[in-house]
Amino acid sequence: MATRTGIVLIFLAVFAFVAAEDGESKESVIEQLVVETLVMPESCTITSEMGDTLQIHYTGRLMDGKVIDTSLSREPLVVELGKRSVITGLEQALVGVCEGQKIKAMIPAHLAYGKRGYPPTIPGDSTLEFEVEVISLSQQTPWQKLINDILPLLCLALVPTLLGLVGLYLYNKAHAQPQGKKKSKDKKSKKK
User: How many Å apart are CA 92 and CA 76, to the nearest integer?
Assistant: First the structure.
């Protein structure tokens, strides 16, 4: 009996130690996006906004320093802000940057690949670190702004309107008296 009690106490002690370690490691995980400017150009008159197009070079790393992806050996990556062509945290980090600016972004898992990760390269619940250089910045034209801002709202208004018109058409069609049956009833009543 004493042996069993000793084994149970050892298991409880190990469990408490592991739980304490997990609690400490979770406190060190970042919960929100952290962006640090590494290099700022001398003049920064235009900053990026949603809808703008950026060309960037980037290097993404896990917190242990392992490189998960880089564009340095390729052409710069073209990112249109608001189109979700990159992970959410990176897109958020690119809002408000200048051409020529270099940033470092610490991206929490929920703004990157979440609990699933991106096997086999990125484990689940991974915080990522991206170093990004903005090569060029093209602001959206007034027409692009109109299309990006107004067109979705217009579509939202048109869908219920079209559904209402289809419903009205179907209602009228279902409640309309067929012409052929009305004439045949009139002929039958005249024959009597």
Answer: 18
Tokens of 149: 């801002």
Q: How many domains does the chain have?
A: 2
Paired tokens of 180: 């052929």
Q: Return the half-sphere exposure (C-beta side, CA atoms, 13 A cut-off) of residue 21.
A: 6
DSSP type of residue 122: B
Please tell me whether residues 39 and 123 are part of one structural domain: yes
State the pTM of this model: 0.62
Do residues 36 and 126 both lie within one domain?
yes
What token pair was written down for 79? 């990112």
Q: Are 124 and 112 in contact (CB under 8 A)?
A: no
Sole residue written with tokens 């400017």 = 37
Does residue 8 lie in a domain region? no
* 32-66 pLDDT per residue, tens: 999 999 999 999 999 999 989 999 999 999 999 99
Strand-pairing partners, residue 134, are 56
* Count, residues in the chain: 192
